[in-house]
Amino acid sequence: MKEISVSQTYRVLEPGPIVMVTTSDRGKPNVMAMGFHMMIQHAPPLIGGVIGPWNYSYQALRITGECVIAVPGLDLAETVVDVGNCSGDRVDKFQRYGLRKRPAKDVSPPLLRDCLANIECRVVDTRLSDSYNLFILEAMRIWINESSKERRMMHHRGDGTFIVGGGKLDLKDRMVKWRHLP
């Protein structure tokens, strides 16, 4: 075994696929890339997401208490990186990167039409947002893009490289303890 710096933890234990988060501030939508997120519980479905004050979306999320988490496929890889490399206070990312929007049903921020999935969320807890930039979000609605041909997702390794998920391992027969979950 070789010891590496603890600063590399994110490269070993990444949280899931890279996502894009839409917010809306006084009617102006914005989108950002987010790599730090996690499922917290099944019912109600709670998601933890780290969005810091250095992100333009931070204030919109704190003020409005709502966002959309969009899960891009591999076909949007370069767009996701480009979105993450600029700030919405200077750039209309939707226009610059050709991101197609669709109105959400229960929240103001838009859905991203070309993503694999969109999750409409409301902030339900901000107690950890000051100290850890961690927002607890409740999923209100989920939209799946059944027409997307690209189904692979990207997992960020923290250094500009990504793991591409695409295969499926079916162990449902062995999953006896949690079989009751939908």
Topology overview:
Blueprint: H1 9-12, E1 19-25, E2 28-34, E3 37-41, E4 46-50, H2 57-64, E5 66-71, H3 77-84, H4 93-97, E6 101-102, E7 111-112, E8 117-125, H5 129-132, E9 134-144, E10 153-156, E11 162-165
Antiparallel strand pairs: 1-2, 1-5, 3-4, 4-9, 5-8, 6-7, 8-9, 10-11
Task: Describe, in plain words, how this protein is organized in 3D.
This protein is of the alpha+beta class and 182 residues long. 16% of the residues lie in helices and 34% in strands. It contains five helices and eleven strands. The protein has helices at residues 9-12, 57-64, 77-84, 93-97, 129-132; strands spanning 19-25, 28-34, 37-41, 46-50, 66-71, 101-102, 111-112, 117-125, 134-144, 153-156, 162-165. The strands form three sheets. The chain has a seven-stranded antiparallel beta sheet. The protein is globular, with a radius of gyration of 17 Å. It starts with 8 loop residues before the first helix and ends in a 17-residue tail after the last strand. 31% of the residues are buried.
